[in-house]
């Protein structure tokens, strides 16, 4: 059995903090549940209910408690308002790799938040946790996430055909990765 993990608070640029999930994040879960795409690619409950949202937050806590990952809420520093989520999943940690996933609410998209969070967690995973490979999967049509991955120094490795079921359909995914010995001009 994996050991419990402590989810730290990390600064993501001057304007955002990555922190553990809190029950006070239910408005973030509600906003994500109303999105057309987020519930398809995550375990965000849709339709929303307070009970389902509370269960979602407890599942985030359980990931850390069981040692399977580090789930973070992305919050603005000026008012602590949560605007998204990023998680480092350790399913394949015995093989020296971890998988990142992230989502942003519609009101926070296009502001560089996801990129700051992705760079922060990637640098932390590669250098502090000493994970040799961090990877993420992006649907080919999702140009915003493709740009975010590439801006954080991830290299596209290829197309995984029919990789994942999303919304009842097998979907292709692009594989992106950063290695611990990659040199990224923006730091990390």
Automatic annotation (TrEMBL):
Q: Which CDD domains match?
A: NAT_SF
Task: Name the keywords, alphabetized.
Answer: Acyltransferase, Transferase
Among its keywords, does the record have Transferase?
yes
EC number(s) on record?
Answer: 2.3.-.-
Q: Which InterPro entries match?
A: Acyl_CoA_acyltransferase, GNAT_dom, Ribosomal_N-acetyltransferase
Identify a single GO molecular function assigned to this protein.
acyltransferase activity
Q: Give, as one word, the top-level EC class.
A: transferase
List the PANTHER family: ACETYLTRANSFERASE, RIBOSOMAL-PROTEIN-SERINE ACETYLTRANSFERASE
Protein name as catalogued:
GNAT family N-acetyltransferase
Give the organism, scientific name. Answer: Streptomyces argenteolus
């Amino acid at each position: 059995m994996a050991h419990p993990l402590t989810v730290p608070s990390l600064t993501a640029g001057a304007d955002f903090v990555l922190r553990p999930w809190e029950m006070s994040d239910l408005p973030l879960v509600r906003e994500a549940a109303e999105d057309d795409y987020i519930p398809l690619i995550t375990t965000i409950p849709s339709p929303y209910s307070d009970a389902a949202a509370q269960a979602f937050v407890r599942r985030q806590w359980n990931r850390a408690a069981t040692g399977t990952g580090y789930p973070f809420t992305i919050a603005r520093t000026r008012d602590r308002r949560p605007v998204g989520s990023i998680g480092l999943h350790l399913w394949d940690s015995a093989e020296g790799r971890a998988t990142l996933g992230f989502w942003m609410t519609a009101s926070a998209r296009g502001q560089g938040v996801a990129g700051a969070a992705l760079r922060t967690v990637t640098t932390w995973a590669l250098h502090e946790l000493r994970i040799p490979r961090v990877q993420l999967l992006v649907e080919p049509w999702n140009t915003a996430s493709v740009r975010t991955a590439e801006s954080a120094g991830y290299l596209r490795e290829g197309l995984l055909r029919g990789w994942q079921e999303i919304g009842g359909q097998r979907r292709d995914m692009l594989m992106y990765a950063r290695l611990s010995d990659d040199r990224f001009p923006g730091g990390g």
